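Service request form, structural biology core

Requester: graduate student, group of Dr. S.
Request type: structure prediction, single chain
Budget code: on file
Notes: please return the result as structure tokens.

Sequence provided:
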Amino acid sequence: MQRSWDIQTKVVQGSKGSDPHTGAISFPIYQTATFRHPGLGQSTGYDYTRSENPTREEVENTMASLESGKAGIAFASGLAAISAVLELFAAGDHLIVSDDLYGGTYRLFEEISRKHGLDFSYVDTSKLNEIQARIQPNTRAIFIETPSNPMMKVSDIKALVEIALVNDILTIVDNTFLTPYCQRPLELGADIVVHSGTKFLGGHNDTLAGFVIVNNTELEERIRFFQKAIGAVLAPFDSWLILRGLKTLAIRLERQQNSALAVARWLKNHHKVEQVYYVGLADHEGYNISTRQSSGFGSMISFTLKDSELVKTVLSRLHLIAFAESLGGVESLITYPITQTHTAIPQEMREKLGVNDKLLRLSVGIESLTDIINDLEQALA
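Core staff response, request fulfilled:
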């Protein structure tokens, strides 16, 4: 891979560009569990697919290149990837976490990791003074989503890294919403990037995947060990689906975020809409930070209706936009976080954040912008 290439080229070409053995432009699916040894004490470099597989290796190296990292490690889901990162820590360790984050991540932290002795403080990571105030002698990492899910808060990655370096702690960034096409946290000094590859990377709502990308050899070796030992690896066919999806990441995201900005502006002017949360709106409190650390704003919008009674009506009237969980695919999807993605988060915490019974989250797809807005208009009529 020529790292001087623009990222629009990198997503298409991948790591090797084609299969070095056959010249196949579409990298092959090595659908095998095991590999034949040439002889005693000899290996082709591939022994057992849980340890390594050529298709998974290609998508791992591609993700490392896109994120400007040393290594990418692929998992069966985004939560599997985060679970592997948590294995870096031991009982008694403390992590500072974005208070606004995906409910599944919160569930993992609170219902599984706490039982293993880890401690978590949920902080508004868009406010540096709050992070400083929560650092303890046993704090080992800061884990952030930026933009956050679903309230679209923006954390200053570079400033967070400076705080982390002074205190000798790791910075972990969930980059699912913006992808390496729009934001590359490792270039800003972060130690670890995680992704739910299920979302924008795959882009077609047809597979689950997760990634960890690092710049440090020691971190790579440890996380690869966890990948092999725990076994929640990305299968060959799913690796190929992500490779296929990545090829159109640039053109998908360009269209999606252009449409999202137009949709956000339309929603902002609708008389039944109370508040719109989209990072690309100039009055968003994280807008200036975003323009410094990101090259785009993504296609995720959250908005509140003025009357919670409207939610059921709107969801039942939508025709084009699907009422479904997940995000980042070519199809526009709308979710109701309070009953779907964020049910694991306690009510008191949800209310403090603004995740209430009036909030909807919209993932803008690649359909006609006119059709998307028309669908929202008739649903809100």
